[in-house]
Amino acid sequence: MKKIEAIIKPFKLDDVREALADISITGMTVTEVKGFGRQKGHTELYRGAEYMVDFLPKVKLEIVVPDEQTERCIEAIIKTAQTGRIGDGKIFVFDVERVIRIRTGEEDEDAI
Asked: Tens digits of per-residue pLDDT, 27-40?
């Protein structure tokens, strides 16, 4: 099993969720996060004063999938989250050793 963490632009969340649902991936955790990479933030104007916004709003998706669904999941995220502009985000893939559903005690792929 793999855990896929994707950091994407917030306005792409619904498109990515729908693309994942189309390939039968329905469970995920979504967190609003802030960060920066090559974008390095930007300046904004508020009541006539300019200030630096160092951390930009992003959304982090966390998805655990069986090994055989990993590539399809990654491709779906890339296809729908990509704008071609700086700040589109990143995808991280981790090995998952064990999953347990608390309610039933099911384990591993049965618990996803």
From this structure: 999 999 988 777 66
Give the DSSP letter of residue 60.
E
Amino acid of residue 47: R
Hey, what are 47's tokens? 């009541």
Q: Hey, what's the torsion of the CAs at 43, 46, 47, 51, to 10 degrees?
A: -40
Q: Within 1-112, where are the H helices?
A: 13-22, 70-81
Q: Length of the chain, please?
A: 112
Q: Name the phi and psi angles at 20, rounded to 5.
A: -70, -40
Q: How many CB atoms lie within 10 A of CB 4?
A: 22
Radius of gyration of the chain (CA): 17
Closest by Cα among 38, 91, 84, 96 to 60: 91
Residue 66 above 70 pLDDT? yes
